[in-house]
Input
Amino acid sequence: MSERTALYPGSFDPVTRGHLDILQRACLIFDRVVIGVLQNPSKTPLFTTDERVDLIRRSIDDGARVEVGTFDGLTVDFAQQVGAIAIVRGLRVTSDFENEFQMTLMNRRLNPDIHTVFLMTSFSNVFISSSIIKEVFRLGGTIDDAVPPACAEALRRKFAKD
Ligand code: PNS
Output
């Protein structure tokens, strides 16, 4: 049987325990999961692409199932490039749905052969987002359990500098 690959795309600015939760679930379904870090999000990212990739690499197990790559074009094009049959996205709260629905339909229109699969985080990760974590760290709060250790460290360093 051929290997089933999924692309898990996102900004990952920075990676959170919520992302890792989705990744772990995706690994139960797919043989290979490629994490695709978007290089040029419309908002200026806090971490450079290299930093975001490095934080992901330091936060995942060395399993053969997961690879990390970067892309700067259409998600469906990168999905095709890595041989993915599906795009994985996490859903937390109902407000995520509208944007995800729109993206899914657009991606399907761009490439009907690539399906989007939504996975839900565990309840403890429902309120975690990269933006809220950056805000809390920027304001001096500590929420180390919401991010992997490498990431908490990087956030502390980033905001200590500024
Ligand atoms: O983690 P994010 O920021 O919610 O991820 C959003 C992402 C990277 C999946 C989305 O912005 C995206 O797919 N960007 C690439 C450009 C693209 O393919 N646009 C058309 C689909 S709407």
Summary: The longest helix spans residues 94-110. The two ends are 52 Å apart (CA to CA).
